[in-house]
Amino acid sequence: MWMHNVAAAVMLMPVATGLLQRLPPPSEQSELVNKFSRAVVLTVVYAVPIGGMSTLTGTGVNLILVGMWKSLEPGAKPISFNTWFFYAFPVAFVFVICFWCILCLIYLRKGSGRALSSYLSKAHLKRELEALGPMSFAEKMVLSVFGLLIILWMTRRITDDIPGWGAFFNGLVGDGSVSVMVAVLLFIIPNRKQEGEKLMDWNECKKLPWNLILLLGAGFALADGVQASGLADVLSRAIDFLENAPYLAIVPAVTLISSIITEFITSNDATATLIIPLLYHIARTMHVHPLLLMIPGAMATEFAFLLPTSTPSNVVGFATGHIEIQDTLKVGLPLKLTGIAVLSLFMPSLGALVFGTNNGVQGMTNIPLLRS
């Protein structure tokens, strides 16, 4: 929820594979133990993108959506951190429960607990936890700064009626300002390991995915280009036939198309950059609020669940050697269909309530209320 998908997968996969090191080698594993091993790795692979949907900072796709919305409709109310969270967290919560059920039905058979009891138990895990020792000063400070960041994000603006601490700055401070301030703190607070060392230094900072920032900017430029070049008008005329299509039929189609495209473009961010401006103009043609298509279409680009190279988190899972393509196909297909169903149900209901898409949008032109 709070880290980029790839970083979260890279951080958590060693935890998962470390757990599996207590099991016998794959060639000596029983069927039940082998299925459990696959399930543990798949948990990290798929839970990462599902959790990333919850917050604006969880994945680059969400940031691209918010940036393009501001670019395409500068007069409309922007999507705040809390607004997104109120909608996306329930979606992700329901989705992750469905994922757990799918994983258990496919990989955890009756008797798995007895088969694993001699290798994994609470006593084993407790001993390993005690072996780590107490948290260091640096670990405590990073956790504290991380917690401070989350609190500031969540309380800058509570709701439209309940102002947060951001009201003291007359709207001059945004979520980005909080991120920069917390990042600066990491360069100031010492780690108490060596004299003069801080929690973060520039050598470590240079390893950050700066190409992601360039990709975000390119996406905003592409959205402006679609408008300025007249391509938006061409696309709108080409899809006039959608004007009378029922919205409840269009949303599943949009999420399905997005989730298929993302399987073949290895960057979810690139897929979102390509498809979000198109969805905006499709919505204009249909005379519905653009967010009703843009949000599920953007979130569906995270459903790259089938192929090994569809998204970097899949690559991290395959690199462990515990899963094969048949595993991602077996779990990914029902998971993709479940995600499409969840988005199709939540966007017209909870999404319309949170984003106010049934009440029109201040500053938007030619967008009437959602047709019944």
TrEMBL record:
Keywords tagged on the record: Membrane, Signal, Transmembrane, Transmembrane helix
Signal peptide: 1-18
GO function terms (MF aspect): malate transmembrane transporter activity
InterPro entries: SLC13A/DASS
Superkingdom of the organism of origin: Eukaryota
Entry GO terms, CC: plasma membrane
Subcellular location: Membrane
Topology term for the membrane: Multi-pass membrane protein
PANTHER family: SOLUTE CARRIER FAMILY 13 MEMBER, SOLUTE CARRIER FAMILY 13 MEMBER 2
Name of the protein this chain belongs to: Tonoplast dicarboxylate transporter
The organism's taxonomic lineage, starting at the top: Eukaryota, Viridiplantae, Streptophyta, Embryophyta, Tracheophyta
